[in-house]
Design goal:
By secondary structure, this protein is mainly beta. The chain has a domain of 184 residues. Helix content is 5%, strand content 38%. It contains two helices and 15 strands. The longest helix has 10 residues. It is elongated, with a radius of gyration of 20 Å.
C-alpha cells in the first residue's frame, strides 16, 4: 500500500481597511475598551496580523499575562470575560495561548475578525481500496460582535470549499462512519463538508466580575458535545486531510438546528443544549 500526499497551503488574514481614527474607537466591547492608535506589541506568533491597530501579545507569555493582555486590548470572546483565542468551533474551548490567526477590525460599534486557510491537495492512496484525487480543502471564517444592551451580540460564519470536489469526497484509507448522500455509507473516503459549516449567533450577559451567561444558536452550528472539531485544533493546523477518526469524534460538528445555553465563571464552563433538527 502506498500513500502520497502533496499539499500547498495559503493562510490569509482577510480584513477591510481603516480601523484607526474610528469615531467609536474605545467603545466598550462587552465591558472592555477597544484600543486605538498604532502601538506596537512584542513579536510572536501573532506578529504581522492586523489587530485593529494593535499587535497581539505573544502567545508564549505566561497564561495569566496573555489572558490579561488579550482582554485589556478588547479582544475578548463574545461569550464571556475570557480572550477570544480560547474560542474554538461552536462553543468549545481551546488553550488560551493558541495562536490568534485572524485579522481584526473595528467598524463603528462592530469588532470583526476574518481568516482563511486553503490547501491545494493531491492525494494518491494505493492498494485495492485506495484512490487518487486533486482537491481544494480548508475554510473561510468571519466573526463580528458588538455591545447590545447590557450584553454582547456575536455573529459567526464558516464556509468550506469541499462541495466543489464532488459528492464522493476524497480518498482516506480506513475512514468510516459517514455517508455521501445521507443514506449510503462510505468507507475509505472523507465525505465533503457542507458549503456553510457554521452560521450562528450568540448573546451573552456579564455576571459579576468574570462570569457570564450566554445563548448560542446555529443553523448550522455545533452542539456542546465533545472537543473543538479537528480543523480548529492546533494539532491539525497543518494537516490538509481530516484524521481517519473525524467521522466518529466530530460527527456532530455540522448540525442544522443547534441551541446551547451556558454559564462561564473564570476558567469553568457549564453548558446544556436542546434538541437538534
Amino acid at each position: 500500500m502506498k500513500t502520497i500526499l502533496l499539499a500547498a497551503t495559503a493562510t490569509l488574514a482577510l480584513s477591510s481597511a481603516a480601523h484607526a481614527q474610528d469615531p467609536h474607537a474605545g467603545h466598550a466591547m462587552g465591558g472592555q475598551h477597544t484600543p486605538t492608535g498604532d502601538g506596537q506589541g512584542p513579536a510572536g506568533p501573532h506578529a504581522g496580523h492586523d489587530m485593529g491597530g494593535m499587535a497581539a501579545p505573544a502567545a508564549d507569555a505566561a497564561p495569566e499575562h496573555y489572558e490579561h493582555e488579550m482582554l485589556s486590548m478588547g479582544h475578548r470572546s463574545a461569550l464571556g470575560a475570557f480572550p477570544m483565542s480560547r474560542d474554538g468551533s461552536g462553543t468549545a474551548w481551546q488553550p488560551d495561548a493558541s495562536p490568534h490567526m485572524g485579522a481584526m477590525g473595528q467598524h463603528g460599534e462592530w469588532m470583526t475578525m476574518s481568516h482563511a486557510l486553503l490547501n491545494v491537495v493531491y492525494s494518491d492512496q494505493g492498494g485495492p481500496r485506495g484512490d487518487d484525487k486533486a482537491f481544494l480543502a480548508g475554510m473561510v471564517m468571519g466573526m463580528a460582535q458588538r455591545p447590545l444592551g447590557a450584553g454582547t451580540l456575536g455573529l459567526r460564519a464558516m464556509l468550506s470549499p469541499d462541495p466543489f470536489m464532488g459528492a464522493k469526497g476524497y480518498p482516506l484509507l480506513l475512514a468510516a462512519g459517514e455517508s455521501a448522500d445521507g443514506k449510503t455509507p462510505i468507507i475509505d473516503r472523507q465525505h465533503p463538508h457542507d458549503l456553510f459549516m457554521e452560521l450562528s449567533a450568540s448573546y451573552s450577559l456579564p455576571v459579576g466580575e468574570d462570569g457570564s451567561v450566554f445563548l448560542y444558536a446555529g443553523l448550522p452550528g455545533e452542539p456542546a458535545y465533545g472537543p473543538a472539531s479537528f480543523m480548529h485544533r492546533l494539532s491539525s493546523l497543518d494537516s490538509p486531510e481530516a484524521p481517519i477518526t473525524h467521522h466518529w469524534l466530530d460527527s456532530t460538528h455540522i448540525t442544522f438546528g443547534v441551541l446551547t445555553a451556558g454559564y462561564v465563571q473564570g476558567d469553568w464552563k457549564g453548558e446544556a443544549f436542546g434538541p437538534t433538527l
